[in-house]
Amino acid sequence: MKTKEYIVTLIAACSLSSCNDLIDIYPVENNFADTFYTSEFEINQAAMGIYARLGRNGGSLDFPTIYYFMASEGRSDNLYYAALANAQRDQVDFRNYAVTDVTGTNEDIYARLYQIIGDANMLLQKVPDEQYTRYRAEASFLRALAYFELVRAYGPQPVVDYPILNEEARGMLRQPIEEVYKLIISDLEYAGNNLEAFYTGEEAGRVGSVAAKCLLAEVYVTMAGYPMNDPNAYQKAEITLEPIMDEVKKRFAPDYSYIFDVNKENQYDLFSVQFASGNQGLGSSLAGYTTEGSGGVMIPEWFYSGYHLQGQDFRVDTLLVKDMKTKNDKRLETSVAEGYWDTTEHGFTPEDYAAHYKERCMMIKFLVKDNTNKTIKAWNDYPLNFPILRPADAYLLYAEALINNGKTELATEWIDAIRARAGLASLGHTPTMDDVMYERRCEFIGEGKRYFDLVRMGKGTFISTMKKFSDHYEHVSKMGANNPSEKDLLLPIPLTVMNIHASWTNNPGY
């Protein structure tokens, strides 16, 4: 999937709907689509085209960069903003709670998610269920993933499960989140029942039933929290996860660093966005945004010479780093660096450190730290996959469900397995939600999960946590940030979309 198959992905993505019109959120049926889907080869191309929306999508940035890192991780208490940008930057606006309905990256995120939905709807309409169930199941998973990210990032959405024309789209109303979740659950149940557990070899990276069921459990756990507070959701999460845990265990990496080793990809995850170097538009842009350097600041001990970085000066919370370091948490070394050399020509004397060593806590788990690697051709050509779901998700979601279902003694096994891999002692006490949230924060740092964890813990927890964090780093007084508020529980619907839907009301505060 990282080579020849993934190349047709980009072709299919740009052929089946409008790559050039990012705000065409409801792709119109066209003559090409009517004559496509006539063979399994074409149907497979169409399915791969949906996956491609999670990649570069024909542009400079991939979906994990703009959504999971900028819009999610960047709004959590894992990353702080350390130095003023020299111009308006969307990455900074996300961190400073200054996103508006005309922020370009926010428009891109919203459009990308509806492109996934539009592509999936087209395949599901054109492809007969009785003959190509596997492809329909993949499309259903990807549609569910897109709607899940839409509903938790933007709130109520139109539920569109078939291809529609623009005129019909204009009349669509935002439906209650309960209606959106019904479609998500239905799609994931279908995917979970009609896919193999995992796919390997040339098909490695394509979604399997274990990933579909894990995402379904994450959906239920999310529904258990704010704003739905569904009293039955944790029970459903436990029932969903229990049958797959033995399969999940088989892919639990014995060493945390293996998860982010480019030579061990598709072995220790459940579902990842696939990337490949070689300047074919298939590389990851994330490495360029996780480190300081807009305008060309380099990290020559890791980066091949000449690749300018794009991100602003965002750094990992020093208090969290200190805590993990004190506990000798093995995850820290893989996830965060506390500094770097600004030249390869240096010694190790105090003078060398003073002149050439830059102390700052940077996210490094997505880097390929090899400055001799010439297969990487640009700052957005990194080969490392981005994990959306991995075994640790299932472990900690299962533990959370067990705790909330009154089965705390059964949750210990799963939390302790995470801790043991991190080099930490067993809990030694009855596990609590605080234990789960702490392990999730350390385990998934940089992966875009912390923001949504804070939101589902409730408005009060989110605002107080982020206010304390913002004050600690003086985001308001020194960086021009806005204080976090209830508004920041959601992103704004883009103005381009609001102009189409005159009857819609934007999210509170926008």
Automatic annotation (TrEMBL):
Pfam families: SusD-like_3, SusD_RagB. GO terms for cellular component: cell outer membrane. It comes from Bacteroides stercoris. This is RagB/SusD family nutrient uptake outer membrane protein. The keyword Membrane applies. Residues 272-510 form the RagB/SusD domain. It is found in: Cell outer membrane. InterPro entries: SusD-like_N, SusD_RagB_dom, TPR-like_helical_dom_sf. Keywords: Cell outer membrane, Membrane, Signal. Residues 88-220 form the SusD-like N-terminal domain. The keyword Signal applies. It comes from the Bacteria. Belongs to the SusD family. Its main location: membrane.
